[in-house]
Amino acid sequence: MVNKAWKIIPRPLLETILNNHAQHHRVPQPLILHGPRGVGKTTLILDRILGEWNKGPHLTGYVDFAQSIKDHHPNFDGSFPWYSWSSCELPSLSSCQTQLENCLESMAHKGIKLGTISSHQIFTTLNKWHGINTALRRILNQNASKIAISNKVSSSGLWDRAVFALSARFNASEIDGVLDFEEKGKSLSIDEASYFKEAIVALRLAKEVIKMQQKWRANAIADLNRSGRFSRSLANSCTDWPCLLLELLSQAAEIGHFQPKLVINNVEILCNAMLTDDSKVCGSMYHDSLIWRIIALGANERCLPVILVTSDSYYSYQAFMDFGFPDIFVSRETFGWTPQEAKMHMVTDYFTHAEWMVIDDVLGPNPRHLFEVYVLKQSNYYQKLMDDEASTFEDIVDAYLAYLQVTVVNPSMEKALSILQKFAIDARSGKILEHRLHFGAPWRHPPSSKDPTKCKEWAKIQLMDFVQSLVNAEFGVNYLADCSLEILDDPAAVALVEVGLLYAQRDPSFFRPISKGIQRCLARWLVQERMQLSYQNLLQYLWQRIMRGRSYRHLMLQVGYDKY
């Protein structure tokens, strides 16, 4: 048996593309790195790229919104889930916001230490977007200023007074710790030290000004959350601080001296983050506001390189349309290895040729599948299994498939059923737009009664009908073929994409399972459900297939585009 440590294998083409983008100190567009789960996007960033992007003048902030999900994160001895993050216990929006702001603040402190961000620059940038006079006067009053402030004092005059008042309130040793003066103090003159301290205090003053203005809008935001309305100005007020930091860092970027970058992993978690504070907008509104403002900063003034990493197929095509047009982001889609590349890396080092033939046929070249099977191969379970002369390597692959079926696919299909049941309830109450219930749609007639049992039976028949249509189309459906977009209205397709079992890729534009292993599990689920149908439900299913059944064979995956 091969007993070799798993190694991170380079991906020269993708690494070169990302490095070329990150070498620019400012860029006009954010980049989205997207692809199905398990193809190695996070591994590529953490183990191959992030270290190089923090050498010399380069500084990269890394934010992983999944970091606080203890059951499904490597930091807590877990692993990223095969299904969508929406099926996990998600973090609060406040924790995600704090994580992002802390990362950007630490980058801004680095810029201040290099002398590229000054107090004047912070004031100019803040004053460009915000009316700060009232907030500065209140901050001065809070600091027990006994001197009356004339109404004729300019914004810059108020700013200088507030910086001076705030510097007296802060602990000098605390500021010295941020600037590492204990190491550098001996080589800095008094003027240089004062310059750096003033910039640190100015940054904190800017944060206080923005937080104060957010408090003034707290009641309006709470009313917005209760009513379910939308307000761009209120949404933008919640992202003022991170966007101000992004603009400061972008202005301070200088080739060969200070080149900041920002990588946000699992950005889709923001959309579903839990709202625990009524003074903040909901997660989806915060997410949209943040990305809108990053796009605007890049288009108007150029922004530091921002790389969004995600496994949610919303960002492969639909996000581009929602935010403007098909090229509003730089898109980099990765599917991991081709079968030939995986064979070259795996055979002899980790698997024999015969073992690889089994894996390629059953699971495909998905890197996470390969790693998990290899770990299983090194386990005591495998040793006991192979001690039995009647056992073969196929048994270990079958055990792994059973693990995927029980822990990944079956729970995800239950979640998809609940989504379809909600669709039926919404359709009955008139919440679904008429164009989604067009004539001839297989899902046009949900049960009219409120009986949850009938609703669940209808949802299961719809889901089985859709999976059967996928089987007939050989699990490859081109959702942009003929510009019909018909499959995007199918609630079963939307549900399976939402739970993460299907991936809607960008180029070419196909719906498909996230891996060949998941594809096999979907087929197993269909067979199992058909076997468990009662006689009456079997008749309903056959009637659905014959009279209203889905057929997507005209949108089948084309020859030459089989990407697994």
Outline the fold blueprint.
Elements: H1 12-22, E1 31-34, H2 41-49, E2 58-64, H3 93-113, H4 119-129, H5 133-142, H6 155-169, H7 172-179, H8 181-184, H9 190-216, H10 218-227, H11 232-238, H12 240-252, E3 259-265, H13 269-272, H14 283-301, E4 306-310, H15 318-322, E5 330-333, H16 339-346, H17 353-362, H18 367-377, H19 380-387, H20 393-428, H21 452-472, E6 477-478, H22 491-499, E7 502-504, E8 510-513, H23 516-532, H24 535-548
Protein name: Embryo defective 1381
Number of domain modules: 3
The total count of strands amounts to: 8
What structural class is derived from the secondary structure elements? alpha/beta
Helical stretch tally? 24
Strand order of the largest sheet: 2-3-4-1-5
Q: Main β-sheet: number of strands, strand sense, barrel status? A: 5 strands, parallel
State the separation between the terminal residues, measured CA to CA: 28 Å
| Stretches with pLDDT under 50, minimum 5 residues | 559-564
Note the beta-strand portion: 5-15%
Helix percent band: 40-55%
Average the pLDDT over all residues and give the rounded result: 88
> Which geometry do the CA atoms define?
globular
Rg from C-alpha positions? Answer: 28 Å
